[in-house]
């Protein structure tokens, strides 16, 4: 290129030509003004940005920036906004949950649904790590979605478990620690057999020797919520090798102090932890109850079916009660015509026995009406 003569000597070119016709060549013009402005503004923006936002690595973390902005505080602010919105939008329901008993919440369609819906997130945040996303359980952590409860499935029992936590205790080697290794092998087979409905008298003897019935009941089915049910094939300490897990439990117990091989089982006390508040706890109790295994809540008998008590044993008191109950029975369409006649007759003759009989009939009618009403399905 150097030997070429510059065909455009007056032009502001650099003398570089890239084709034979010398059409493609490098000029030495100043960049356009708009380009330079963009460059200057861009450079200044970088400096402002770098000072405003956290940009510069700074002794193991980063500088804070004059805006003090972080992605986390922004996220937290958004969450707070959402919570404020929820708080105003659902203030009535939140208050109703706070003011209602667990039974009242479960018996009220609206509140129950709201509690379950809002508890889903709470369960995901606080419980799912151990109990599985839908309460389906994990190895070593009980299923909450069935009706096989270690500590009971009434609202009150679930509430106790979640509020105060639970730590089941079972001694190793039997209640007195007197079972030998071969005996525990045999006992393991016995326990495995229990869940398949097998009965083995020799195993039963060892079951007695280990005093297992003290907690697991005489048949392996605890009568109180004290220990795992051994007869239903639902394993609290589920394992790929279930027999090995049962043997381990029998040998090393549950939460047995100082035994490294013991089955660990500790449900944290959420009522005391401060992680969730009282309303959230209520929602979680209802949520767990509604996962499928909760013991049915029987609605209280509505006032219209509750009989009036006689105020004393005098004729006047009894006949007054009979009349009041007869009227109530009429109101719920369950009165017997006889009762009316009996009351009339008793009033004429002042017959205490007849008044009592009339009252009894009216009370029975009320009870029958209540059953008929409750029989239409609730929960
Ligand atoms: C760190 C793990 C862990 C977390 C988190 C946890 N649990 Fe538990 N939970 C357990 C263990 C272990 C048991 C069984 C305790 C035992 O057997 O002694 C249990 C037992 C229970 C039971 C009793 C089950 C029965 O059969 O009677 C309920 C109900 C329960 N948990 C609900 C919850 C709820 C609701 C949450 C969230 C607020 C929660 N758990 C969080 C570990 C956990
Ligand atoms: C002091 C009470 C107590 C005694 C005595 C006791 N257990 Fe237990 N057992 C428990 C408790 C509590 C659990 C675990 C329940 C929980 O915390 O989830 C348990 C759990 C088990 C399990 C695990 C069941 C499963 O579903 O994985 C087996 C098996 C078992 N026990 C067998 C026995 C045998 C056999 C004996 C007699 C040698 C015995 N237990 C004596 C309280 C007891």
In short:
Helices cover 51% and strands 3% of the residues. It is mainly alpha-helical and 379 residues long.
Would you mind describing this structure in some detail?
The chain has 379 residues and is mainly alpha-helical. It has 4 domains: 33-62, no CATH class; 73-164, Cytochrome c-like domain (Cytochrome Bc1 Complex, Chain D, domain 2, Orthogonal Bundle), CATH 1.10.760.10; 168-262, Cytochrome c-like domain (Cytochrome Bc1 Complex, Chain D, domain 2, Orthogonal Bundle), CATH 1.10.760.10; 303-375, no CATH class. 51% of the residues lie in helices and 3% in strands. It has 16 helices and 4 strands. The strands form 2 sheets. A two-stranded antiparallel ribbon has the order 1-2. A two-stranded antiparallel sheet has the order 3-4. β1 (13-17) and β2 (25-27) form a beta hairpin. α8 packs across α11 (242-252) and α15 (337-349) packs antiparallel against α16. The longest helix has 24 residues, at 352-375. The mean pLDDT is 89. Bound molecules: heme C (HEC) (2 copies). One heme C is lined by residues 150, 168-171, 174-175, 187, 191, 210-212, 214-216, 227-228, 230, 235-237, 246, 249-250, 254, 265.
